[in-house]
Amino acid sequence: MNQVDTKIGRQAVMYTFSNSEAEDSRIENGMQQLGWQFGKGKVGSMEFQKIVAAIETLAKRQGIVNQDIYREMHALYHAIIEAMQGVTRGQVELGGMLRTAGLRFAIVRGTPYENAAEGEWIAVAVYGTIGAPVRGFEHEAIGLGINHI
């Protein structure tokens, strides 16, 4: 049996990049073997708040985070902001700068360290296009945020 990759950020990025059911299944099986929680989705908007809301909604609906526990929501929020800073090159703004984004995202929650005392971590990977709100006037971008819970 192959050893499952415990790099939580790499798992989130690879899951985001995955674009076939077979590839999704392979990645998901590995994360399930580790007992990790995960989910992926898509969002497109000129509004930063809508992107954050889409990622948070998926995390809550799939039980990746408990919305009633502040530290879980706080960790998720910071992972999202860190990932979006990568996508927006540090300027976490879209519509006000006449930019729009079409993004795929993945959320992974797990225990990436051998020492159980290190606890749980959450990773958010975001990949897609960003640019002027005109088709063909965008480029690829990626961001990754990792935070402890």
TrEMBL record:
This is Hut operon positive regulatory protein. One of its GO terms (biological process) is L-histidine metabolic process. GO terms for molecular function: RNA binding. Antiterminator that binds to cis-acting regulatory sequences on the mRNA in the presence of histidine, thereby suppressing transcription termination and activating the hut operon for histidine utilization. Keywords: Activator, Histidine metabolism, RNA-binding, Transcription, Transcription regulation. Pfam families: HutP. Transmembrane segments: none annotated. Belongs to the HutP family. InterPro entries: Regulatory_HutP, Regulatory_HutP_sf. Homohexamer.
